[in-house]
Amino acid sequence: MKNRILKKSFSLAIASIISISSGGLAYASNNINLNFNGQGYVPPSNTKVEDGHIMIPLKWIAEQLGAKVSWDNENKTVDIKVPESRILQSQINSFMYGLEPRTPKEAVDTWLKGVKSRSGSIQYAMLSTNLQEKTYDKFNEGYWNTGGSSPWIDDIVFLKEENINDAKVEYTIEYNLKSSAGIEGKGEKVITIEKNPEEYSSNWYITEIKSKENNCEMYTPAETIIK
């Protein structure tokens, strides 16, 4: 019974979000598309146009925005809870701190893990403030997914490790670019890692990534392409 009331209540509790010229007609519309922050969505089948407005179930809209929706049958109340930005920020800060590398090699290995898994969040956490500023907009536009599904990097080999000084290390790596058809080519990067200069800090971060240009690989704004 509760589920029936819930569905009925949300069907009746519809939000007027867009004004259009419809001449006062009421009709169902199955070919309306919506964009939230640039991402396209197809609204539910019970979306309709009535009196110059597009009517969409409130529950559906709230859930697309990341809210949790529940129905209090006793008080006949719809409860919508949107994630608090402070809680989300604390979660992000905890994630970033937990990933802080304690050695130069750990910084490179973790960044490569992010590249292989196409995780912009992991890559971003390994970068210096300067490189983070360069990559933030691009990563955000791609919803923090980077690169393409093919080709991917594999068979990574560390060719060289050079200790520039006590707080700066440079690694040269080589890898294969693979697809379902096999090896598409080879890639090479020179990655510079520096120790955080802040007092009492022991973490390292990537300050420069020089990538040898090839036609198979996709790059991020954090990388400098070398021909």
Automatic annotation (TrEMBL):
Ranges of residues in domain Copper amine oxidase-like N-terminal: 36-87
Keyword Ribosomal protein: no
Record's keyword terms, sorted: Signal
Pfam families referenced in this protein's UniProt entry, alphabetically: Cu_amine_oxidN1
Protein name: Copper amine oxidase domain-containing protein
Gene3D superfamilies: Copper amine oxidase-like, N-terminal domain
Domain of life, per lineage: Bacteria
Leader peptide range in chain numbering: 1-28
Keyword Signal attached: yes
